[in-house]
Design a protein that fits this description.
Blueprint lengths: L8 E4 L4 H9 L15 H12 L10 E8 L5 E9 L5 E7 L8 H16 L4 E7 L3 H9 L3 E12 L2 E11 L1
Antiparallel strand pairs: 1-2, 2-3, 3-4, 5-7, 6-7
Length: 172
């Protein structure tokens, strides 16, 4: 387990990262609990170019903060993003790359991203949407202090299976 947050750093995602991270992002196992399909490299480049500008590619009013987490060996270990929508609603999403999962990295890099966001924006709460079967992500958000606020039953259709969406909230 990772014990010291100082061993990780966050780097703001730019279009340049698309090529560097694509082999990680295109790993099929990362999409087990996501409705999204594995993106093409061109899609990742386009999304990362928007992230570099802190804008969403599909929501004009959203501020999109996105980082890649890096360990001391300069390995990319995961991605974390926080979308800030109008009316100060904000949601976090994260993905730990294969080979770095179940080592305690996610709570650390997510807490770094939350701290960076709080320096710039005065959010009252942060939300996380997690598939009911994604036990690893549920453990991460709970470790970060998020509490289950709502269950949206039968709203996700993932890999041919209907499942619940769990909405967690962290109050600041």
């Amino acid at each position: 387990m990772i014990e010291d947050a100082a061993i990780l750093c966050l780097e703001k995602v730019t279009e340049h990262h698309a090529q560097l991270l694509y082999s990680h992002i295109s790993e099929p196992r990362l999409y087990a609990y996501l409705e999204d399909e594995i993106p093409q490299l061109s899609e990742v480049k386009q999304k990362f170019s928007f992230a570099e500008l802190e804008k969403s590619p599909d929501n004009d009013t959203m501020i999109w903060l996105k980082w890649v987490a890096i360990n001391p060996q300069n390995q990319y270990i995961g991605i974390v993003e926080i979308g800030i929508f109008d009316e100060q609603y904000a949601e976090i999403g994260f993905m730990t790359f294969i080979g770095f999962q179940k080592q305690g990295y996610a709570p650390i890099y997510c807490s770094l991203a939350i701290a960076e966001t709080q320096k710039r924006f005065s959010l009252n709460a942060l939300y996380a949407s997690v598939n009911e079967y994604n036990l690893a992500s549920r453990k991460v958000v709970e470790k970060l202090g998020f509490e289950l606020q709502k269950v949206n039953q039968n709203v996700e259709f993932i890999k041919g299976k209907i499942s619940d969406e769990l909405i967690y909230r962290l109050i600041f």
